[in-house]
Amino acid sequence: MENYTYNSLTLQLEGLVVSEDSIYPAFLFLFFSYLFIMVTNVSMLVVIFMDKNLHQPMYLLYCNLSVSDIIGSTRILPRLLTDMLRPPSNRLISYYECVVQAFTSHMFGTTAHTVLMIMAFDRYVAICNPLRYAAIMNNKMVIKLTVSAWGVAFVLVGILLGLTVRLNRCRTLIKNPYCDNASLFKLSCESVFINNVYGLTFTVVLFTGSIGSIVLTYTKITVVCLTSKNKTLNSKALKTCSTHLILYLIMIFSGCIIITLHRFPQYSDYRKLSSILFVIVPGSLNPIIYGMQSKEIRKFLSEMFQSKQVFAIK
To answer: Theoretical Cys-Cys bridge with 41: which of 8, 66, 82, 198, CB 3.0 to 4.6 Å?
Structure first.
């Protein structure tokens, strides 16, 4: 018969279940992945901040994605790395820290959608209304879009976690590598019908709005490119839009895998692995893809390295 502990403030994390032979290789992989995410994303922020030529709406909006990746990976991976070196019985976390981690992990995933949506709007205005771009995408609009991206995510995730926090808990084991909403409300012995309904609605609204906005903007952009005889415009549109679309597809594919595997409990180990890769893969690839595709960023880095080489020779 299962022992129940009601509303305990100390929870136990299952963590990442790996064999003894695989602990250190897995630890090193996660450690260097986290280090890579931090270095690349912080570097992108520094480059955009230092180069005034990059103080454009497109790059300033991208900064939100880097900030989201930094916050999400920092709140999840260091704790996961620490737990890997502990025996399962010592992987303890306070309830409040678990709620904060769950909130951060869902904010990380949600802002990835909202930020990429406003970046799609930016590309739409730049390509479909180039003459009005400077007037529409001014500093005030960039601030409004940024606040909207984070504000919508904060409200949606706040309600999601608020419905979970209200529940009484009778279990203490978090069956996941890190805390998330589903793991938290599964600790309750009460009815979680409302949580499931809102969680499903939350997912449907987010994915529908996200995919719908991407399809709509890219359809209009495609129409403009097909009807325009301006090869320069078409070439620029192809480069900037392909970068944005690749980032979006990586994010949506990583998220869909987790949602799909949640429906198959027999593949729980694969779900745990995919939940970690959801943090690592987009966070690692986003700055590389965006940096490599951006002519301005490549130019800035090239000039910076050349100046350092000249200084070293002198």
So the answer is: 66
The values of phi and psi at residue 11, to 5°, are -115, 160
> What is the C-alpha to C-alpha distance for residues 28 and 51, in angstroms, rounded to an integer?
34
Q: Please give the Cα distance from 94 to 88 (Å, whole number).
A: 15
How confident is the model over 226-243, as a mean pLDDT? Answer: 73
Q: Are 150 and 111 in contact (CB under 8 A)?
A: yes
Q: What is the C-alpha separation between 191 and 102, in angstroms, rounded? A: 20
- Residue-wise pLDDT tens digits, 79-138: 999 998 888 888 999 999 999 999 999 998 899 889 989 988 988 888 888 889 999 999
Distance (Å, rounded) from C-alpha 57 to C-alpha 38? 23
Rounded to whole angstroms, how far apart are CA atoms 82 and 91?
9
Separation between Cα atoms, residue 82 and residue 181, nearest integer Å: 21
Tokens of 309: 């080489």
Instruction: Please determine, for residue 1, whether its predicted confidence score (pLDDT) is greater than 50.
Output: no
